[in-house]
Amino acid sequence: MSKSSKKYILGVDVGATSVKMGLVDANGRILSRALFQTKAFASKDAFVKELIKQMRALLKKSGTGKNKLAGIGVGLPGRVDFKKGIVHDLTNIKGWNEVPLKKILYKIFKTAIYLDNDANAFASGQLIWGKARVARNAVCITLGSGVGGGLIIEGEVFRGSNFSAGEIGHVCIDINGPSCGCGANGCLESFVGNRYIASRAIEKIKKGQKTLLTKLVNGDLKKITPELITRAARQRDAFSVKLWEQTGTYLGIGLSGIVNIINPDMVIVGGGLSKAGKFIFKPLNRELKKRAMRQHLKVLKVQNADFNDDAGVIGAASLLERER
Amino acid sequence: MSKSSKKYILGVDVGATSVKMGLVDANGRILSRALFQTKAFASKDAFVKELIKQMRALLKKSGTGKNKLAGIGVGLPGRVDFKKGIVHDLTNIKGWNEVPLKKILYKIFKTAIYLDNDANAFASGQLIWGKARVARNAVCITLGSGVGGGLIIEGEVFRGSNFSAGEIGHVCIDINGPSCGCGANGCLESFVGNRYIASRAIEKIKKGQKTLLTKLVNGDLKKITPELITRAARQRDAFSVKLWEQTGTYLGIGLSGIVNIINPDMVIVGGGLSKAGKFIFKPLNRELKKRAMRQHLKVLKVQNADFNDDAGVIGAASLLERER
CA of A149: which chain B residue's CA is closest? Predict the structure, then answer.
C-alpha cells in the first residue's frame, strides 16, 4: 500500500502517569488527540481494554477508517522486543510481563503495528520529522521521572543486541554516588531524575537553606517539582538557580562520556526537565566543553528536542514512517 | 584485483614505544615480522623515513613483490581521518600534525593503504579474524598505557561522525576522581591506565604498605609495571591482588555504563593489562553483573581478545580485508 493512499498514523505514548494518543499525518502533525490516566487501572488487562477503547474512539471521532490508517505506533516506558512486538516489562506500571501487545492490537485493528521503548520512539520522531533529520549520529535524551536515551547511528535508530541500547540514565558518574532505582549506585539518573532532584532540594531545605520554593508549595515540600524549580529560578531564587546549575553539571558530565564513546554530530535534549532552558543548558554546555574531547567537539551540536509534550506521540507514530 | 591473486597484507602497528609490523596472510596469520623503537627519532620526518625503510626491508626479505601485496594497513595511537588517510595528531609521539600519511605511503608503495586509530584497528582485527566474527554489536577495549576502545555496530567497525568514536577511557566514573591526561577528571583511564595503576601502587607503598613488589624492583618503585604486579599477585602478594581487584572493579564500573548504552552481545578485553587474567576479570565480571541491566546481561559475553601482542599488527592488516 503506498504512503499516499493511507495518510494517517495513530501514535500512542504510554506513560506511567498518562497515556497520550494522536492521529498523525504524513508530515508529523497531530490532527486529533486523546488522553487518559494510567494509574486508574488495577490490572494490565483492564488497562489494555481501556487503551483499545480509547484508540477506537479516536479513530471513529476523526473519521479514520481502515482505508486511511497506515498503522499504529506505540511507545512504552520499559523493555520492548521491537521485532516481535512483545512488552517484556514496564517501569512504574505493574502487571506487564511478556505481553504480546502487537498481536493483541493486530487482532482488533488489522493494520501495521510497531511497538518500541519510549526513548527509542522519541529518537525516531526526532529522526523522521525533527532536527535529527540532518544528523548522521545522534544521542537523544529525555529527562523526566527517568532518564531515557535513544541512539541514532548512521541515520537509523540503533536498538542494540536485544533492543535495550540507549540506557543513558544508568551510566555511573560517581562511584561513591547515591543508590539508584536500578540497583546500582551513582547512575546519572540518580542525579538528574525528577524525584532525585526534588529530594535533593527537600534535603537542603530541611537543613535550613532558604528558598522561594517553600513559599510556592506552602510549606508542603513534597509538592516540589521541576516546573516549580524553574519558576523560582526565573524569579531569581538563588537556591533554585543553583539546583539547576548542579543538575546541568551532572548532565554534562554524563553526556560528555557518551559523546566521547559515540562521537555524535548531535545531542538532542528533551523531556520535562529541558524546559528549564538556559538554567540547565548553560552548565551542561560548559561541562561538555570541558570534558568531551577536542576532536569530538568539532562536529557536535547540542539541540533542544522538537515537539515539546507531543514528542512521545509523534515519536510513536514515526515508527511507521521508517519501517513500512 | 581478486583476493587470491594478492595474498599478503602488510600490517603496521605504531605505538609510542615501538613500531611492530608483520606480513599477514588471508587467514590473519603473521608470516614475517619487523620491529623498531619509536623514541629513537627526533622528528616526524626521520620517523616516517625509518618506517618506510623498515617496511621496504620486510617486503624484500619475505619476497613480497607488488604482485603479491594486497595493501598496507596502519594503526596509529591518535586521531586519524580514516577516509582521507590523514593523521591529525598522535598521543605521546610528538611532531605529528595533519600528516597525509596515506599519500606519503602511496607514493612509495603504490598499493591500497588504510590508516586508522589503533583501537579501531584492534576492533577490526577481532571482527575479521577473531572472536567478534560472531558478534553483532561489540565493545572492544585495549588496556595499556592508555585505555583504547573500538566499537562494532551491526557487524561493522563504527567510527563516529569524525572518526573519534570509542574513547572509552574518557568516560567519567567519579566526579570527584583524580585528574586525567585529557584535561578532565575521574575518567576511566585515570583509574586503569598503566601509569595510574603504578602511581597508585607507589603512593600506597610510600605510605608504608608492605608488598613483594618492593623486593621485585629492588626498592626502585619507578620500575613497577603491570607485569610485575601480576607476577606478585601470582605469588599471593595480598597488596598486588588487591590492586588488581580495585582495577577490575573500576573497569567493571566503566564497562557497565558502556554496556547499558550500547547493549552489545560481546565485550572483548585486550592489551597488556588483560594478561592479569582472573585477577582483573573476576572483579570486572562481578561489577558488570551488579551494574549492567538485567536485559543487557542476557545477551552479553565478556571475552579475552585474540592474538595477544600481535593484535595491533593483525588489526592493522585487517583494515584491508573489509574495505577492499
Answer: B261
Examine the domain organization and report whether B160 and B301 are in the same domain: yes
Residue B178, domain extent: 135-305
Q: B146 CB near a chain A CB, below 8 Å?
A: no
Q: Does B88 touch chain A (CB under 8 A)?
A: yes
Cβ-defined contact of B184 to A256 (cutoff 8 Å): yes
Which DSSP string corresponds to A244-297? HHHHHHHHHHHHHHHHHHH--SEEEEESGGGGGTHHHHHHHHHHHHHHS-HHHH
Number of domains chain B contains: 2
Q: Are residues B157 and B255 in the same domain?
A: yes
CATH number for the domain spanning A140: value is 3.30.420.40
B276 and B319 share one domain: no
The answer on A300 and A155 residing in a single domain is yes
Rounded Cα gap, residues A257 and A39, in angstroms: 36
Q: At what angle do helices A238-262 and A194-206 cross, to 10 degrees?
A: 140
- Quick check: is B13 in a domain? yes
Is the CB of B256 inside 8 Å of chain A's CB atoms?
yes
Q: Does A142 lie in the same domain as A113?
A: no
Separation in Å, CA of B274 to nearest CA in chain A: 21
Q: Considering CB atoms only, which of B160, B177, B250 is closest to A262?
A: B160
Spatial contact of A221 and A214, defined as CB atoms under 8 Å apart: yes
Min distance B114 CA to chain A CA atoms (Å): 20
Residue A3 within a domain: no
Which ipTM value was assigned to this complex? 0.95
Same domain? A39 vs A89: yes
Q: What is the rounded average pLDDT of the residues A39-57?
A: 92
CB of B189 less than 8 A from some CB of A: no
B297 near B262, Cβ under 8 Å? no
Q: State whether residue A171 sits within 8 Å of chain B by CB.
A: yes
User: Distance from B136 to chain A by nearest Cα, in Å?
Assistant: 7
Instruction: Give pLDDT tens digits along chain B (324 positions).
Output: 444 567 899 999 999 889 999 999 999 999 999 999 988 788 999 999 999 999 999 999 988 887 899 999 999 999 999 999 999 999 888 899 999 999 999 999 999 999 999 999 999 999 999 999 999 999 999 998 889 999 999 999 999 999 999 999 999 999 999 999 889 999 999 999 998 999 999 999 999 999 999 999 999 999 999 999 999 999 999 999 999 999 999 999 999 999 999 999 999 999 989 999 999 999 999 999 999 999 999 999 999 999 999 999 999 999 998 754
Which chain B residues have a beta carbon less than 8 Å from that of A253? 172, 175
Do B301 and B315 fall within a single domain?
Answer: no
